[in-house]
Amino acid sequence: MKHLALIPGDGIGKEVTEVGMDIIDAISEISSFKYDAELFDIGSERYLRSGELITEEDFDDLGKKDAIYFGAIGDPRVRPGVLEKGILLNMRSRFDQYINLRPVTSWHPFVPLKKHFDFDICFLRENTEDFYMGAGGTFSNGKDATVNIKRRLYDLRVDIHTESSSDDVFAFELGMLSRKGVERFADHAFMTAVKRNEKKITLVDKANVCTSIYGMQREIFSGKAEEYGIELECMYVDAMAMAMVVRPHTFGTVAVPNLFGDILTDLGAQLQGGLGMGASGNINPTGVSMFEPIHGSAPDIAGQGKANPIAAVLAAKMMLDHLGHEDMGTMIQDAVRRCLDDGKYTADLGGKLTTRQMGAEIRKEILGAKR
Ligand code: NAD
Ligand code: IPM
Ligand code: MN
Q1: How far away, in angstroms, is 83 Cα from ligand 1 center?
Q2: Residue 146 near residue 60 (C-beta atoms within 8 A)
Q3: Ligand 1 centre and the CA of 79: distance in Å?
Q4: What pTM does this model have?
Q5: Which domains does the chain have, with CATH numbers?
Q6: Beta carbons of 128 and 92 less than 8 angstroms apart
Q7: Closest ligand by atom to 85 CA
Q8: CA distance 55 to 37
Q9: I need a surface site. Which of 91, 107, 156, 363 has the fewest CB within 10 A?
Q10: How far is CA 252 from the centre of its chain?
Q11: 84 within ligand 2 shell (Cβ under 6 A)
Q12: CA 93, CA 134: separation in Å to the nearest integer?
C-alpha cells in the first residue's frame, strides 16, 4: 500500500492531476498497485484566503508520504515568485529533491523531429542550487556598502558606468554551487549513465562566462568522469540549445544546472510535441520525491478543458516507476501512445478532445489492455 500526497495547485494543475489520479486509479483496478491519496489544499486559493503558502504541518504530513503528485502553481492575481518560490521551490529544497529528472524522448508519432531522428535524452537538472538559492536583493550605491558582496558588485558596475550617480540602484541574484552539491549531482548523473549503458555524459554550462561556479562544476565532473570511466562532453548552454534541435539523437544523459535546465527542458518538451507532453520527477534518492508535469498553471487556458493531460499522466507514470512498479508505468505510456496512434488527443496536438475526454480514452486503453 503506497501513501500518496496529491497537490493539484493552480489553474490547469487541477484539471490535469484529476486525469492523472483517474489513471492511477485504473492501474490500481487491474494490478497489485494499491494506494491511498491525501489531498492537500496548497496553492493560490488558500494563499489569497488565508495568507498561508505551505505550513510546517503540511511539511510534516507530506514528509510521511511515499511520493507527492503535483499539478502546477502560479496565479496572475499573485505577484510572480510568491507561490513559485514559497511553495514549489520550497518543497524541492525542503525535501532535498536535488535531481530533477526530465526525459526527452521521441516515443510517439507527434514528435516534430521524428522524421529525422530518434532520440532518448535523460535530462538531469540540478534542483536545489545555482540561481535558485534565493540569494538576491537590491542596494543603492549611495548607501555605505557594509557587506563585501555589495561592495564587489558595486565596484564592478562602477567600472562600466563611470557616470553613475549616488542614487543608482542595483539588483542582484547570485548563482551559487556547493562542492558537496555538485558532487552528489555528478554521482547521480554518472550512475544514471552507467544504468543506461552509455559511454558518454554531457554537462551543460556557461563556463566561458560564469567561470567560478561552472569552472568548479567542470572540475568536479572531470574527476568523476575518470572515476566512472565515462567520457565527459562539455557543452555551452547556447550551443546546446541549437544542438538539441539539430542533433538530439547524439545525447544520452545530460547534466545541467538549475536555471539552464529549466529553460532547456521547456525546449525539450517542445521537441516532444509541446509543453503538454513533458513530465518530470523531483527526486531525492533517499527521501520523498515529487512528480509533476513540467508546464505551469497556464492561466490562458485554465478552466476551459483545453489542457493536454498527457504530461501529468506521464508524471504519474514516472511516480509508479519510482515506486517500483515499472511494468505499470510502461502500461501507462503504451496506453497514451495507442491513443495518439488512434487520433485521440487534445487541441494543442491538433486534436478535438477535452482534457477529461483524453483522460477517459487513456483510462479505457488501460482497462482494455487487461481484458
Ligand atoms: P505555462 O507552462 O503555464 O504555459 C505556457 C504556454 O503553454 C501557455 O500558452 C499554455 O497555455 C501552454 N500550455 C502549458 N501546459 C499546457 C498543457 N498541458 N496543454 C496545453 N497547453 C499548455 O507557463 P507560463 O504561462 O509561463 O506560466 C504560467 C504560470 O505558471 C506562472 O505563474 C508560472 O510561474 C507558473 N509555472 C509553474 C510551473 C510549475 O508549477 N511547475 C511551471 C512553469 C510555470
Ligand atoms: C518548472 C518551473 C519552476 C522552475 C518555477 C515555477 C519555479 O518553471 O518546474 O520548470 O523554474 O523550476
Ligand atoms: Mn520551467
Answers
A1: 14
A2: no
A3: 16
A4: 0.95
A5: 1-97+283-371 (3.40.718.10), 111-131+175-271 (3.40.50), 136-173 (no CATH)
A6: yes
A7: 2
A8: 19
A9: 156
A10: 17
A11: yes
A12: 11
Question: Separation of 51 CA from ligand 2 center, angstroms?
Answer: 22
Identify the burial level of 47 via C-beta atoms within 10 angstroms of its C-beta, where 0-12 means exposed, 13-18 middle and 19 or more buried: buried
In angstroms, the CA 19 to CA 356 distance is 7
For ligand 2, is residue 279 a contact (CB within 6 Å)?
A: no
* Dist CA 45 CA 56 (whole Å): 18
Q: How far is the CA of 305 from the centre of ligand 1 (A)?
A: 15
Report, as an integer, the average pLDDT of 176-183: 98
Sign of the CA dihedral with 14 first, then 120, 321, and 233 last: negative
Q: Is the pLDDT of residue 28 over 50?
A: yes
Residue 78: helix, strand or coil by DSSP? coil
Per residue in 77-88, pLDDT tens? 999 999 999 999
Residue 20 grid cell:
492523472
Please say if the pLDDT value at position 167 is more than 70: no
Q: Which atom of ligand 1 is nearest to 84's Cα?
A: 34
**Best of 10, 84, 100, 256 for a ligand 2 pocket test (most atoms within 8 Å of beta carbon):** 84
Pairing verdict, β 253-256 and 200-205: parallel
- Please give the mean pLDDT across all residues of the chain: 93
Which residues make Cβ contacts (< 8 Å) with residue 73, sequence separation at least 6?
A: 9, 10, 13, 43, 44, 83, 84, 87, 88, 296, 297
Q: Nearest-CA neighbor of 356 among 306, 291, 300, 316? A: 306
Residues linked to residue 101 through DSSP beta bridges, in sequence order: 124, 281
| CB-based contact 267:229 (threshold 8 Å) | no
The residue-averaged pLDDT of 281-289 equals: 97
Cell numbers for 185: 549531482
| DSSP secondary structure of 70-99 | EEE---TTS-TTHHIIIIIIHHHHHTT--E
Closest CA to 40 of 21, 23, 61: 61
Largest CA distance in the chain: 76
Provide the CA 100 distance to its chain's centre, in angstroms: 5
